[in-house]
Design a protein that fits this description.
This protein is of the alpha/beta class. The chain has two domains: 200 residues, Rossmann fold (3-Layer(aba) Sandwich); 168 residues, Glycogen Phosphorylase B (Rossmann fold, 3-Layer(aba) Sandwich). It contains 14 helices and 15 strands. Strands 3-2-1-6-7-8-9 form a seven-stranded parallel β-sheet, sandwiched between helices. The protein has a six-stranded parallel β-sheet with strand order 12-11-10-13-14-15, sandwiched between helices. Strand 10, helix 7 and strand 11 form a beta-alpha-beta unit. Helix 1 packs across helix 14 and helix 7 crosses helix 12. The longest helix is centred in the C-terminal third of the chain and has 20 residues. The two termini are 36 Å apart.
Length: 393
């Protein structure tokens, strides 16, 4: 079987209406599949003014605004019209990108029609409740995720650290890797722009500590702010740059009144903004990979990150940056202080990080997932069966 024989039905709760690292990876994957001659059909909610145009053909799925997060949509079902489209498309594999109602329905469709199902894991949903005062719900969410992923033939994680966590959580017996790539034409030290910095009131000799990402509390905005406060109390000279937007922006701006907020940046503008920074500070523990960490490394700046899935596979502690116990404000501040006050160490870590990104080409990482697709379709055609129903908690 060849890649060109694949017919992939991709189900995503957010394919392009709100930009994030997960759906940008999915769009790159679809582009790669189409270039290899595969057929792809995407089933996802749509909005009138999405953040970016979709790659491939999208079949609209009905959805309602997500409670408390109206920018997102909660897909409800696979309606009859979409089921007819599925039947006409005749996929030989189902790919589900999120474990919500639509994902469950897609898995059920695959099992009913004897199609292999692959689930890609993009975020640690089980950690979200702790950011909203509901930490006691984490075991419940984890159990629900286990039930979902065990109904799939295989799951893929974007980093080895995340794959190992999924194994430890007994999410699946077939856990593979679909990592992420970086565009070296966009993310490169050559995009560093001191004139752009100056336009923001940042001097050439200022050390810029940068946050990159969607501004939501689960990205660790509280930890970031507390560490910056402690840095200021220790009289460490620095500037804070925030790249991104989101519902928590007002909170973050009030919490860090001296920071420079530049809003969402994309493409070459994002590459310039990151390369014009000096340190990336990523305290989040919710990512399964951490695209921003890889992109920062590609631009030649060190990363201070939480010891968490994704970052553990990307940052070599003491070489390309520092890994710190999640929530350890004092340790984060100390790591930031070190790089602020030791420019030679900052440059050495940035150079080492850039060298570590050489192996992250998009075509190579997408081929990893294509190989999984082909293996599962071959197995099913050879008489293999889907996953047995499991009652393991």
């Amino acid at each position: 079987m060849e890649t060109s024989d694949l017919r992939i039905a991709l189900f995503s709760g957010n394919y392009n209406y709100v930009r994030d690292g997960a759906n940008q990876a999915l769009n790159r994957l679809v582009g790669y599949l189409l270039r290899q001659g595969a057929a792809v059909r995407i089933y996802s909610p749509v909005v009138e003014n999405p953040d970016f145009p979709p790659t491939g053909d999208v079949v609209p799925i009905p959805a309602l605004p997500f409670p408390g997060r109206g920018e997102y949509r909660a897909p409800l079902m696979i309606p009859p019209r979409a089921k007819r489209d599925l039947a006409a498309f005749a996929p030989n594999l189902i790919h589900v990108a999120s474990p919500e109602i639509l994902g469950h329905r897609a898995v059920s469709y695959g099992r009913k029609h004897n199609l292999p199902v692959v689930a890609s894991v993009h975020t640690r949903f089980e950690t979200y409740p702790r950011y909203y005062g509901l930490a006691f719900m984490e075991p419940v969410v984890e159990a629900a995720l286990r039930r979902f992923y065990r109904r799939c033939d295989a799951i893929v994680a974007p980093s080895e650290s995340m794959a190992q966590l999924l194994r430890d959580q007994r999410m699946s017996y077939d856990v593979g890797i679909w990592t992420r790539g970086v565009d070296k034409e966009i993310f490169t030290p050559a995009r560093r722009d001191l004139a752009w910095r100056a336009s923001l009131g940042i001097a050439a000799d200022d050390v810029v500590i940068t946050f990159v990402g969607r501004l939501v509390m689960e990205k660790g905005l509280d930890v970031f702010s507390d560490a910056i406060d402690l840095l200021a109390k220790r009289n460490v000279r620095h500037k804070v740059l925030v790249i991104g937007d989101g519902p928590a922006r007002d909170w973050f701006e009030k919490r860090l009144p001296d920071a420079v907020f530049v809003g969402f940046q994309g493409g070459a503008d994002l590459g310039r903004a990151v390369a014009s920074s000096d340190i990336l500070f990523n305290p989040s523990v919710t990512e399964t990979f951490g695209n921003v960490t890889l992109e920062a490394k590609a631009t030649g700046i060190p990363v201070v990150a939480a010891i968490a899935t994704g970052s553990q596979s990307l940052v070599t502690n003491g070489v390309s940056g520092r890994l710190v116990t999640p929530g350890a404000i004092g340790d984060f501040a100390e790591a930031l202080r070190y790089y602020c006050e030791h420019p030679d160490a900052r440059r050495a870590a940035g150079k080492a990080g850039e060298a570590e990104t050489v192996r992250f080409g998009w075509d190579a990482v997408n081929q990893q997932l294509v190989d999984t697709y082909v293996r599962l379709v071959r197995q099913r055609r050879a008489g293999g069966k889907g996953p047995a129903r499991s009652r393991v908690p």
